[in-house]
Each structure stands twice: as C-alpha cells, then as structure tokens.
Amino acid sequence: MSINASGNFVRKLWLYNNLLHRLHNSQSRLLNNRFAHAIIASTMAIVPLSIVRGLVITASVICDTAGFNNAAIWFMQLQVGFLALAPLVMNIYVAVHWAVRNRLSQIYCIALSISTLMIFRRILDDNAQFFLDISIPLALASGIIGNYLQEVVSESLLKFRRWKDSSYVNILSFFITLGIIALFSGVIKLGAAIWLKDGMDFLSSLSLYFYPKDFLHGISYVLLRTVPWFFGLHGYYLFLDIDVAFTAAQKINISDWHTLRHPLNILSPVFYDMWCNAGGTGNTLSLIICILMEGKSPHRRLLGIAGPMALFNINEPLIFGYPIVLNPVMIIPFVLAPLMSYLVAYAATYLNLVPRISEVVSWSTPSPIKVWLASGHSISAVVLYLFIVALGVVIYRPFVTSSLKHSIPDNEDLDGFTGEMNISQPTDFDMVPNYSHVVEGNSYIEAQRQIEKLQTTGKFILYFQPQVRLTDNKIVALEVLIRHQSDDGKITPPVFLKHYERTGLMPEIDFWVMEHALDYVREHMADAENMTLSVNISPQTLVDYRLLNVVRKVLAKPLPDGWHLEFEITESQKVQEPVRVAEVLEKMRNLGIKIALDDFGSGYSTLHYLTRYPLDKIKLDRSMVLGLAKPDGFNFLQQVVKLCKVVQCEVLIEGVETQDELEQVQTAGIELCQGYLFYRPLPGNTVCQLLAEQHIQKTLRDGMHNKSEARVV
C-alpha cells in the first residue's frame, strides 16, 4: 500500500470513528434527557395498541377475503377506534411518566395533562366538543407543557414559603397551572386569532409539502415515514390526514383506470407498502435477515416476537427492542434502506420493468403476497421485491456486524470485588475501528437489561457501616449502603450501581436510600444520641433538579434528637457542573445537612475540591492506609491530616484493617475511623443491637459517675 493510500485510509478511519463517536455521545445525551424520556415512554405505551390494531386489520383482510363482509367492516371500524385512542393514551402516559419520574401525584398530573389537551384542542377548533380527534404532536406537547409548567409553579411555591404538608403545594400548583394555561390560551384566542390562523395555515401548507404528488415529494414522504421513528413516533400517525387523502386518491385513480379515463399513477400507498415497508417501516425485514445471519447476535432473542410480527409488517417490537429509537447509528440504515428501495422501485416502474399498482391491498398483508396481488400477479414485481430485500440486507449488514463485534458479554471479565469490567485496551485507540465507542454503543441497552433483571429477581435492602471515634471507640456515625437481596436470599454488593449510573438513574437510587434510611432511623434508632447518618450522593444527583424538593420532603418529619444528616460527595468521580454543585451544597448546609468529601486522595482535583466546596468532613481513602507501608507514607499522611485541619474539617480514614495501621493513623492525629478492624457493613437489626448496647453502657457509666459524685459530696 502506498504512503498516500495509507494516509487516506487513516483519515477515513479517523473520520469514521469520530463520526460514530459523536453520534453515540449524542445518543447518551438524548437518553438522559427527561423530555426525551417522556416521549419514549409514551410511544412505548402505545406499542401494544399498535400491535393489536395491526392484528385487527389483518383479521379484517382475512374476513374480507373469505367473504365475511360484515365482520370485515366491524374489524375495520374497530381499528379506527384504536387509531383515534392512541394520542389520548400517549397524553395520559406522558403524565404518568412525569409523575413517577418527578415523584408527583399521578392523579393531578393526568388531570392537568388532559385538561391542557382539551384547552389546546378547543383553541385550534371552535367546534371541537371532544378530544379524540387530535394529533399525536398536540397530545405530546400538551402533556409536556402542562406538567413542566406545574413543576415550575411548584418550585416557585416552595421557594416562596416552606410548607409543612407537600399535598397543599400539589393542589395549589395544579389550580395555578391550570389557570395560567387557560388565561394564556384565552389571550391567544382573543388577541392573536389572526396569528393563530396563519400558523395553522402554515402547518397545513407544510404538511402538503410531504404529499407524494411527484418523484421529489415522494422522497420527502419516505423521510416523513421513517425519520420520526428516531423519537419512537410513527410517521403515519403524525400526518394522518396525508395518508387518508393519499388512500382516497389511489382508489379514485384505480377506478378511473378501470374506466380508461386516466392511467395508473406510479405513487400510491400500496407502492410504499410494497417497496419501502417490507417487514414494516424501514424495510426491517432486511434487518431481521441480518440478525439471522449473525449466529451469535444477542438480538436473536427478539426474533421470537419480532419475526412473526414482521410477517404482517408490524415492527414495533424490533424498533424498540433492537433499538432503532434514539439510536443515531441504526437510524442511518433505517432511513437509507427504504430511501434506496424507493429510488430503485420508482425507476423500475417508470421504465415499465414492473407494472404499476392496480389493486388496493392492506398494508398488513404479508409482503410477497401483497406484491403478487397488487401488481396483477407479476413475476417481475416479485423478482424486484426480492432484489429490494437483498439491497436492504447489504445496507443493514455493516451496522449489524459492527454492533455484534463490539457488544459486551454478560459478566465476562467482571471483577467481583470492584464490579468493574477488566478490559485490555489497545495502545493506539485511533487506529482501532470503533474502539472509542465500543462500551458507549451497547452498554446502555445492557444496563437496562441488568436493571430489569435486578427488579424482577429480588429487592433492595439497606446496610450500615459504623464510623468510630478513636478516643473512646464509640460509634458516632453510620454510613448507609445499598445492597440487593435476591429471592433466594443472596446478598449482592453494589456492583450493580454502574448500571444505574450508565442509564442516568443514580438519582432514583440515592433518593430511595435517603428516604428509607431516614425512615429506618426514626423507627428503630431513635434512642441513640449524637449520631450522624451519612448518605452517599452521586454527581448525577447533585445536579438533579429534584434534589432540593426531595430533601425538604424527607426532612419534613424531623430526625430523632441528636441526629444529623450528612451527604457524602465522591471525589473519585468527576463533577461535570462544579459551579452548580457548589450552589447546591451551600443550600444543603443551610438546611442543616453536613457535607463530607469521600475517597479523598483517590480521584481528580483534590485541592480544588477543598477550596471550592463547603465541607464539614473529609474521608481519607484506603490508599492512604496502604501508603503507610512505603518509607515516607506516614509523613505524607501526617501532612494530609494537617491540610484537612487547615480547612477546619473533621478527618476520617477508611479501610483500617490491622492494629498496626490503627496505631499509625492515631499517631498522625486522625480522630475518626471506618474499617473492617472495627465493623464491616452490617444489616440494620445488627446495628440497632450495637447502638442499644452502647446506650446501656453509657447509662451505666453515667450512673456510676453520678454515684461517685454523690459520695464525694
């Protein structure tokens, strides 16, 4: 290979890697975006509805073919009902998802979402008496706008004053939000009626642009049907009016052709169903074949459901299961395959290599049968269909193969102690195709699967690890830790937390731990005195907009006398928004919460953390203990302790496991200790016994001290 050729290869390889890396990064941002979450949740909610609708249409076609006309009409009317119900279901599910995600009342969120939808529907049409005649964009927009506005109102009310009962905030924010929406809508209706009409006219003209009246507009129609699937939205549902008019025009055209008044059009709904929707939108029959060709593909498990559905051109299980949704890489062949099929089929039809569509055949009819019937039993049309399926396989194959090469095996090379993957990394990342986004590309799906497995095979429980004051060996604080207990009683350490971090769900874990730990302390440890409950807070949670409200909620009921709440922030994980984190931590301290810096000395900007954030305690990492074995290890530890005391923080050291280590850390001036030499993480009932014994000993010592004083007197 020449030097120029080699240079071109390297540049192409770098561009390929860089492009896919950017695409996967954008996927991560989308998957962690709450608005995208709400849309995807609502679209997934209507997947069963879409599948049932497809089966109902298939039943109608079968009945019509068998001569049962009344049954065929009944089934067809039933599918129209399903179609009309889909936007309303999506609107409701946006509200349900928003309520669960933001820990709000589902009843209020659903009521607000539907009310907003009705108000918006009424603005757009004075004659609208009911809200089943709505579009999916309107249903989604009203659900998101209404609930987001309620969230803003609730936060404003909480800032305005502190409420003892959060239910008052929910009720008040509901009515204020509804009033704002009604007022704003009335202003638009009365004061901007002309602008509203112009806007609706513009949307109508925009939708007409996608009407496939000629070759170029036909390309736009292909994009309309495929691109919205990136967000889980069916293009057919988005612009239903286009398809209704397109179907009516096809029937008229075929009728005119039979009476010799007009030639057959090239473009028709059946044309797209035949050539661009083999197995469903995106020509996903080709994707299924690619998955079958890869013997070790992890996506083969999808075919048990997706394969039979694809025979009737229903591909929602495949689109959401592979996934195509929010996947910037797989959306490329998903759009490209039907687009290339359109160009090939249009050219073949225009050149009379295959006949034009002369029969209206339901989209749910199996593709080979549909091609045979719609083309007037043309062999050449069947051959073209096979060619288009093969073309789709050629387009999909590189993406499927790449996905298989870089998929992550289940628990392979998993370190049981740390829970991390032991992956040997090449030295020259840029020269390894796709390496820069190997984990990024597949780990999200794998993490979701592992989370679902955890939720269905057991439950989460709390463990506590005591922190000891060295002057009197008394337990003065408890760090709460999460564990998973399987149905057979097996306790798993928190190696699963990386799955929640990958999917952006660490706030859910942190909030769960915080709420349950505080409830447990109030119920079982109230007799302990002068104690601190330490809760780990991840960087994701620190920048979560719900944190302040959740903290206020859990602290609405006071802690037992002498107890304090402490948040541990992890120094070993890089904080993405340091300015915002500093503001959040300051607000936490204003609420009486202590702030501890965990894993000090093991991570990123150690000194930067000390100067930027308001801290009450610094927890030295076990690496400091291990460093005592080195010649200058003790002197180094002494200097670190002095540095921590300069910023007026308590100092705690983790990982003390031997008596020699204990003596050295005491000599270094450390007051608090946490490690296996004292206590391992323990279940709550064991800790309760330890605290009870400590309380009894304190009572006995106090009693003896009082008696001694009495004798002296």
From TrEMBL:
GO biological process, one term: phosphoenolpyruvate-dependent sugar phosphotransferase system
Keywords: Cell membrane, Membrane, Sugar transport, Transmembrane, Transmembrane helix, Transport
Pfam families xref list: EAL (PF00563), PTS_EIIC (PF02378)
Membrane topology designation: Multi-pass membrane protein
Domain EAL: 444-695
Subcellular location: Cell membrane
Top-rank lineage group of the source organism: Bacteria
Membrane-traversing stretches: 35-62, 74-95, 107-124, 130-149, 169-195, 215-239, 302-325, 331-351, 371-396
One Gene Ontology MF term: protein-N(PI)-phosphohistidine-sugar phosphotransferase activity
Record carries keyword Ribonucleoprotein: no
Keyword Hydrolase: no
Matching InterPro entries: Cyclic-di-GMP_PDE-like, EAL_dom, EAL_sf, PTS_EIIC, PTS_EIIC_3
This protein's name: EAL domain-containing protein
SUPFAM superfamilies in the cross-refs: EAL domain-like (SSF141868)
Domain PTS EIIC type-3 stretches: 19-399
Cellular-component GO terms for this entry: plasma membrane
Organism whose genome encodes this protein: Buttiauxella izardii
